[in-house]
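Recap from last week: sequence in, structure out.
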Amino acid sequence: MDMDCLFSSYLLGCVVSFSVAGMGLFDSVNYSMGITATGGFSTHNTSMAYFHSPTLEYIGAFFCFASGVNFTLLYMSVTKLNIKSLLPMLNLFFYSLLVAGSTAFIAWQLIDKKIIMPSNTPLEVVFFRLFLFITTTGLFSDDAAKWPHITWVVLAFCMFFGACSGSTSGGIKCIRGVMITKVISNQFKQILHPNAVLPLKVDGANVEIRQRVTLFSLSCHIFNAHSNQLLLCSLLWE
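Predicted structure tokens:
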């Protein structure tokens, strides 16, 4: 099985899933291409909200999440029939942890503020919206501007980090998030143990000092620019 065959099968699976859930063939093909490529092309002005279907949103959320996984790792695990080989990858672990933590926090905020009620309003909006943000897929099913302001910060962090490296999503990628976390952790350890030599390894590969400094400096500049842009947008929105 080559890469093209795997991606075609993945795309076909998305098309079939949407079709079975009630979406027309034309829309299924277009939305599937937009989601699997994390591009987000829509055939309707109201995007996924046009269908008013929780099932379609759950399907879209699943394929959005899968599209954010490192496609090379996914390909190797499928061809070797060993999905467990993905589990030790820090890239995927950080991505999954970021998704799970952000989803739980935003859902709690929306329920606490009575914006959604678990008894009568589905939570697929949270899943779908978050996966669209973290993979920078340009679809929508709800107006996030109506959510509590603290959730905007969480969504901004998700957009900043993005999904896994090796995917077509935006952001600096989760692997760099892992490296930044390890750099900060090593700095705190260095304070306690000034003479310690603390290597930085990601999935067994050593990261040189020069690369660490470049990564941290560049990430700070990108985050600063990202924050200023969001602040400007919020001022213009007001």
